[in-house]
Amino acid sequence: MASIVFPVSSHAQLTSALASTETNIEIVVGQSFSVTSAVAISGAGKTITMTSGTGGPYTLLRGATGVLFTLTGAGSTVTLTNILIDGNKATTAYATNAGGSLFYVNAAAPSVPNLVVSSGAAIQNNKSTTGNAAGVLVAAGGWLRLQNGGAVRYNDGGSNGGVYLNGTAAVSCRMDIYGGSLDHNTGTSVGGAYVLRSQLYMTSGAIAYNNGVNGGGAYVNANATFTLDGGYVEYNTTIGSGAVHGGGIDLS
Question: Are 43 and 73 in contact (CB under 8 A)?
Fold first, then answer.
């Protein structure tokens, strides 16, 4: 089934396109613009691609505090290609605390990846001392994939910098790194990824240059798993004082 294409050049056009009842849509961003309020992406069984048009990659820049994008809807997939979701931490209003993650994945049905960050796309430059992750927070049942050069990078969290996989005893989360990267994130707990009652799979790509206290690259909880079949875990460091934890991966 062919996708329905929505050209988008403003916040209002973006929210209108995402509110469509069509189940297979492609959002083509024609210029950089600010996202000036929280954006909800909802509806079950949707396939949504967000990409840049000619001249991209373009940037969707934080223009409001709090979680910027919330993804719900069982069995839905949002794929980002050739587009930047930017937390705007260079701007004074968001330099200290933007108040939430750039993406919150709360789809609660791990039949398909819910958020795919692919070629030319990045979730980046967010600073948040509020919440569990500055980059992407994945609730129980959610599934995040970084592939083909897609990245979560340069995020600075009051708890965790890049990604927080918040599984429960009953329902886990999943994250795949298939040629993507988790890099240059910093957290007062974990720099790259905090893996709680969840699964992290890596076949290629990199977890690199992250800084945290309880694991620079990743902290893998006792009820979680990390399967490493390829790629690089390198140049991650721990910061602060007290107990020594793994710079690359902390398996606790």
Answer: yes
76-112: pLDDT as tens digits: 999 999 999 999 999 988 999 999 999 999 987 668 8
Q: Which two tokens stand for residue 4?
A: 């329905």
What is the three-class DSSP state of 109? coil
Exposed/middle/buried for 158, CB within 10 Å: 0-12, 13-18, 19+?
Answer: middle
Which pair of structure tokens corresponds to residue 142?
């959610």
Buried b (16+ CB within 10 A) or exposed e, 27-42: bbbbebbbbeeebebe
Three-class SS state of 93: helix
Q: Which two tokens stand for residue 238?
A: 């721990």
Encode pLDDT of 143-173 as tens digits. 999 999 999 999 999 899 999 999 998 889 9
- H-type helices in 150-197, by residue range? none
DSSP 190: B
Q: Residue 244: how many CA atoms within 13 Å on its side-chain side? A: 1
Q: Which residue has the tokens 């004082």?
A: 241
Q: Around 115, how many Cα atoms within 13 Å sit in the side-chain half-sphere?
A: 34
d(CA 192, CA 163): 6
Helices (H) and strands (E) in the chain, counts: 2, 28
Residue 51 near residue 77 (C-beta atoms within 8 A): no
